[in-house]
Design brief:
Layout lengths: L2 H9 L3 H23 L2 H17 L11 H33 L4
Amino acid sequence: MSDTDLAAELAAGNQDALAELYDRYGRLAYAVALRILGDSGRAEDVVQDAFLKLWNNANQFDIDRGSMRTWLITAVRNRSIDTMRGRGAHERQEREQWAQHGVL
């Protein structure tokens, strides 16, 4: 099944198409997330979020703008970066709170 066929099946709500997509690109998506995040748990969460995003927005996929693989990996990359930014901000906020209480 081509990416275009997969996208049409996803848009139609076919869960088998989602499983096929995961079988096809899941390892790559995880490798990208793990490389960016350096944390297996967060990488798994990012991949799950990316596939969920794909599932919920499959009708927006446009083969003329790129492949399903590209769309997915871009989503994984962007979500991984967002996760890194959020973690950094959270850690800074936590350190500041501890410092205000004289713990650090």
